[in-house]
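Lab meeting, item 3. Inverse folding demo.
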């Protein structure tokens, strides 16, 4: 179905990337959500990510999706969501907030 080795599935289970249910005989039983999760992890690993890195990316993507859903719920039609005041200065970018270390790189 997924085209992956059973050893890979065992590794994902041991690293708690997925936690499938077990049959009375001890076989892993994956839900549709877990299969989709394995497919997403496998895609990221195929692109060069580590399993731990791929797991974290999926976690962050899930968190962002949940936050977006909460934001949509808060700014539903009829709600008066407050945003930045019109004409207020833009927030500085991360790079403009960094301070230089005061040392310069050696020149050749």
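The presenter then showed the designed sequence:
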């Amino acid at each position: 179905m997924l085209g992956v080795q059973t050893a890979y599935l065992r590794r994902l289970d041991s690293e708690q990337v997925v936690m499938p249910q077990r049959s009375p005989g001890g076989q892993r039983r994956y839900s549709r959500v877990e299969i989709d999760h394995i497919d997403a992890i496998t895609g990221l690993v195929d692109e060069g990510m580590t399993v731990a890195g791929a797991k974290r990316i999926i976690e962050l993507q899930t968190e962002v999706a949940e936050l977006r859903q909460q934001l949509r719920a808060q700014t539903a039609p009829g709600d008066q969501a407050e945003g930045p005041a019109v004409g207020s200065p833009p927030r500085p970018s991360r790079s403009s907030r960094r301070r230089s270390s005061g040392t310069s790189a050696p020149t050749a």
